[in-house]
Each structure stands twice: as C-alpha cells, then as structure tokens.
Amino acid sequence: MHKVVMSAARGAMTSFYLGLALLLALTVNARAGWLRALGRLCAATAMGFLAWSIVLANQDGTFAAVPAGDRTPLLLNIEGGLIGLGALMLVASLPFTWRRAAPAPPFRSTGAAYGQIGRGLHWASAALIIPAFTMGQFVRVLPSGRPDRAEFLATHMAIGLAVGALVLVRLGERLARPAPANPPLVRAAHGLLYAVLIALVLTGLALAPVLGLHLPASAGAEALHRVGLPALLALLLAAHLAGAVTVIRRMAR
Ligand code: HEM
Ligand code: HEM
Questions:
Q1: Residues with CB under 6 A from ligand 2
Q2: Count of domains in the chain?
Q3: Domain range for residue 129?
C-alpha cells in the first residue's frame, strides 16, 4: 500500500511540473492579456511553493540534520530567497501584463524576433530546470531512509530527462532558423548554457537509470554532475538573469 501511495506521489510531482511547463509554453506569449497574466500567476504560485518548501526545511529540522560543513542548506536558502523574490516580481507585473497590448511574435524565429516556438520552449525548459536543480540538492541533503528522498530523486530524474528532450528540440529549431543577433560573448554564453544542460543530463544518466536509459558510471561523471556542472550552470544563469532583465521583451510579451 505504502509503495502504491509513494509511486502515485512521484507521478503527481512529475506531472505537476510537466503540466506547468506546457501551460507556460502556451500562455506566456499568448495574444490575450488575461491568458498571459494567468500563465504568470501559475508560474508565481509554483515558485512560491518551491520557496516555501525551502522555508519548511529550515523549520522541520531537515537542514539542521545535515552534517556541518555541507553548504547545500545555505545554497538552497539563497536560491529560495531568489525564487521567492522572482515570484513577487511576477505578481507585481500582473496588472501591466494584463493591459499590455504587445505585437504578436512570429510563429518561427526570424533574424528580428524569437518566434512562439522558441519562446515556448525557453519558458518550458526554465520551468523544469529550476525545480530540477533544487530537487537535486534536496536529494543530497535528505538521509537515505526518508521516503521523500526517493520521491524527489524520481522527480529529479524524470524532469531532468524532459529538460534533455526540450534542449534537443530547442537546438534543432535554433539551428534550423535564424534568431535575433547577439554580441559574440552573449552567443558564447547561450551556447555554453545548452552544452552544460546536455552534459548534466548525460552525466545524470551515468549516475542512475531512467526509463531504461543508462550510461556507464564513472567517478568523473559523478563529480561533474554533483559539483562542476551545477556550479557552472548557476554561474551562467546568474549572468543570464543579469543580462536578460533589460531585454526581457525579446522572450515575453
Ligand atoms: C537539467 C538537468 C539536471 C540538473 C540541472 C541536475 C542537477 C543536479 C544537482 C544540482 C544535483 C545535486 C548535486 C549535489 O549537490 O550533490 C543532482 C544530483 C543528482 N542527479 Fe541530477 N540534474 C539533472 C538531470 C539529471 C538526470 C537526467 C538524472 C538521471 C537520470 C540525474 C540524476 C541525479 C542523481 C542520481 C543525483 C544524486 C543525488 C545524490 O545521490 O546525492 N540528474 N542533479
Ligand atoms: C532557468 C533557466 C534558463 C535557461 C536555461 C535559459 C536559457 C536561455 C538560452 C539558451 C537563450 C538563448 C536562446 C537562443 O538564442 O538560442 C536564452 C535567451 C533569453 N532568455 Fe533565458 N534561460 C533561462 C531563464 C530565463 C529567465 C528566468 C529569464 C527572465 C529574466 C530569461 C530571459 C531570456 C531572454 C530575454 C532571452 C533573449 C536574449 C537575447 O537574445 O537577447 N531566461 N535563454
């Protein structure tokens, strides 16, 4: 019975994030203002829950039980603060989103604008990468006896694999179509983001199998997946966010 309940819970968390990704892909650049606002509200709610689960981990003793010297709880608290702040900013933007009459982007990207497909894939991947990242860290800090560890790990691997699929589709669309021009440094950072995500999925598949997919395990893959690649991804995302605020209209109406 316990097993049945746990596997239903795992499926529920994975379906929740996959559903959120689909919802964002369909709404963030929709024609109707109310639909765009609804998409942002759903994203803000999910981000609020994610931040709240980190607050709870401080209160219920989860973080207190982590061996001294492991900085993951501190990192999770910083990420929770940023995610909470992002949720508040999204909520504050709702009235403007609602009223804004923005020109419709083209369906496919052109040299002048990212298209609906590229934008949808961008937000769907962001909706999966953020929880995949924090869930990986939760797996690290939860003791192996706790049932929610297995739940987090299964969800982490499933949405991580979905990120891999989305990155491949995105790269396909990106290479097939022109996209708005960017300076070489920005282009290099975007290329590196794609490469780091693919490397994370491949090294993840060397740590544990998902859907029958498995790559040979190695100490190098483990170190890369648990330390090097997450650190590089965090660095690239910080630079990405700093650079993206001023050009946000390129990805969202
Ligand atoms: C975008 C994709 C992914 C990201 C951003 C990501 C990120 C992370 C992070 C940040 C950790 C925690 C590292 C630590 O602090 O120790 C982690 C752990 C882990 N990930 Fe991933 N991952 C991704 C995809 C995958 C995939 C596809 C799989 C497997 C199929 C996977 C399997 C694992 C496993 C087994 C752990 C180990 C947890 C442990 O035992 O400590 N990951 N991941
Ligand atoms: C969490 C994961 C995210 C990832 C992995 C990611 C990745 C990327 C990549 C690879 C591109 C380049 C698209 C291309 O030309 O091929 C891009 C563009 C962009 N992203 Fe993100 N992104 C993320 C989150 C965000 C967030 C939260 C924002 C909002 C602040 C954002 C705003 C933008 C904007 C405005 C562009 C267009 C930049 C330009 O061409 O000048 N991204 N993103």
A1: 122, 125-126, 129-130, 174, 179-180, 182, 190, 193-194, 237, 240-241, 244-245, 247-248, 250-251
A2: 1
A3: 2-250
